[in-house]
Amino acid sequence: VKSQRTFEAAKAWLTECMHDCVSHSQCLQKRNDFAPTRLIEVLRHLDGKLTARLVQDLKGDRIRWACLSYCWGGDQPSKTTKANFTERLETLPLVDLPKTITDVIPVTSQMDIRYLWIDALCIIPDNPDDVACEIASMPEVYMHGVCTISASQASTSVEGFLQDHQTDEMHHQPIPIHKRAWCYQERILSSRIVDFGHTQIQWICKSKRDADDGRVDRAAITDALIESSVNNLLSPQERWFDVVSKYTRRDMTFVGDRVLAVSAVAAYFALQFDCEYVAGFWKDKLALQLAWIAGRPKYSRPGIYIAPSWQVRSSWACISDSVFWTISDDLVPAVEVVDCRVHLRHSFAPFGAVTNGYLLLRAQIREM
């Protein structure tokens, strides 16, 4: 998929989507002065050479960035740390980065996008406060970025996504990025997606689906963009059930991240529906939400703290199973929620990790 035609197709789709106010009226983005805390600046020199560096605290409403959505496939030794942060403000050694990350550099440049956001490079993982703050800002990062470049067929960061494939065998194989839990919120919150597959690239926005070879693969665009991945005719509660049931089918390396990896979607729901969030649930009609059903477990129960103790038996966030709900209009809760509180680990991250909490119910009890 690495060719000048590929890059030209991606650039043409983006240009059309951003400037055709008639055909892409659904895709118009409101002016917003948000910018991620850190971005990667991609520079093309007169000799054609590409270099990159980390930049911080950019201001202005004309800053355009792309996001990379990809599978880590294990720990990232090339991630930004407190030790190498200052050095990376000067230059980001591309030779030290995994192939998926180095592949996205020329794509970004060819699409005339100067800045790039990549989680492993733009978040400092050995600074817990920074991690919490950056995860809390993920909805804005993906929603206000000009597009997300998806390395959908690479199962690890070292595989890359621009190499050519000789056969079409992989075209019908499971798509790695659709199995990773962290990638779910990246995919549905993005404004536009350029999806790099084994044999083609696809364009996904609110107004259009297209492919450089003319064959739109429906499997490759599953769960893309929240407006199309969730039926807008459903109630907010039913939409959340749909999101969680799809999300919990995906693989999670650390089960303790289960609440964090969907926190950006929770932030989106809170903004859209004016609901109060409590560690994987919403206070409105909370009793009905407790009636989730577990599917087949994928991992053993984690031994670390994820959610309040009252949630150990009542929260989907504390188990490794996929979950779903069978809620009908005539279902009447047998309990009344009197009060529910959680204490956040970070006050600036209302959809992130919690330290403790409680749930007070009123109900009839039976002696056993």
UniProtKB/TrEMBL annotation:
Species the sequence originates in: Setomelanomma holmii
Pfam families: HET
Protein name listed in UniProt: HET-domain-containing protein
Domain Heterokaryon incompatibility, chain residue ranges per copy: 65-173
Domain of life: Eukaryota
